[in-house]
Amino acid sequence: MTSTASPERHHLSPRRQRHHRRLALTGSIVGAVIVALDGTVLTVAQPTLQRDLHASFVQVQWTSTGYLIAVASLLVFAGRLGDRYGHQQVFALGILGFGAASAGIGLAPGADWVIGLRIAQGIFGALLQPATLGMLRAAYPPDRLGMPIALRTSAIGLAAAAGPVIGGALTAHLGWRAVFFLNVAPALVIGVLALLVRIPAPRGGATPTRLDLPGAGLLAVALVCLVHTLIGIPDAGWTVGTALGFLAMTAAGIAFVRHERRTADPLLPPDVLGSPTVAAALAILLAASASLFGTLFVGTYFLQNVLALDPFQSALRVLPLAVMMVLSAPASAVLQRRYGPRRTTAAAMTLLTLGVLLLSLPGFGRSSTTVTTVAVSGGFLLLGAGFGTVMVTATAVIVRHASAAHAGVAGGLQQTAMNIGPTLGVAMATMLVSLGAATGATLLVLAAVAAIGAPLAAGLPGRGER
What we know:
Elements: H1 14-53, H2 57-85, H3 87-106, H4 111-139, H5 146-174, H6 177-181, H7 184-196, H8 213-236, H9 240-262, H10 270-273, H11 276-306, H12 311-360, H13 369-401, H14 407-434, H15 439-456
């Protein structure tokens, strides 16, 4: 693991630089995998948790909702803390706290304890996630970031595929508490390693700036209102409360932008907030993740309720998506170097769009069994290839475009987009289904969302451009 400054400024020997880069990459991958596994295994364990703790459905929902609100609202500020105090230190605090909260959930006597500890886990997760990208930005030269980010993305895809299997096996044989103990040992090991492995302080580092606490508060309020409102749409639909939620989010967002323009030490530095390149990459991640997770929500419903497949059979149909995410991530790093982020991302968003369109064919109810099988398998294959590539290229653009001094904020923005996008996609899909839209029509709308990403790629750098 490394501190926030570029390794070249430490004047380390090439051997020590390679050593610390390997440690930074290991920490980044382990941290990202722990968070990814936690989300997927929890979904499998929730029904057993509800029965064991005699929890209500609302309480079970809040084990996910509380975490998501906490993590989404604090990611950018947590990234700023990493820029200010060092990504390695913030990473260590985040991963050790995440592991401790996981152990506490495994020992929780009731549902309210689980909810409270999941919120705490979200806070530590917010500290952890931007630091996994900030450490890579600090450890690697900008032109060599593609492959480390690709390996991190592949690991996330592998965790997403293995999570339901691991969670199901642990829950069936050892109970739901074992799912949370799964994180404790690796979090403890990598967290202690982050504390023990030190690097000399950088020479001539940037002058520390004050933390923008009012800006952080306004952004947190805006994101809490947005995420909470989006999560509530599937159950409540469009109500007065929904409108008030969006109104509060808009008001807080406007106040945040006005504050950032006037303060001397903004939470979002001008080179990040005003960058068209960063804005395009964030919009692409929002469109890609909204389309993917909305499609997964509708697709799972179609596989189980229309095709009458059981959960395991449905998981097998979706497996090509995870496999292609794992395989496409390192390939996309090579493509990005050869063709540039612009062309690579435009092609990937096209694949993602085609995947959703292919999955929409059986949704209109006129397809034969053969067409349905081909459409489902091919659709999930294209989804995985497109999304895995976009994750790498857009993330690399965001992290690379920001200076090393603002790498944490850039990582926080990337993680915020990756948390809000799925929530937006599921809310959109649920709204369309509740209004009576057919599965095929709903998927066509989600394909249109994905298609937005292709022209947005024009805002990314071309081959050889910064």
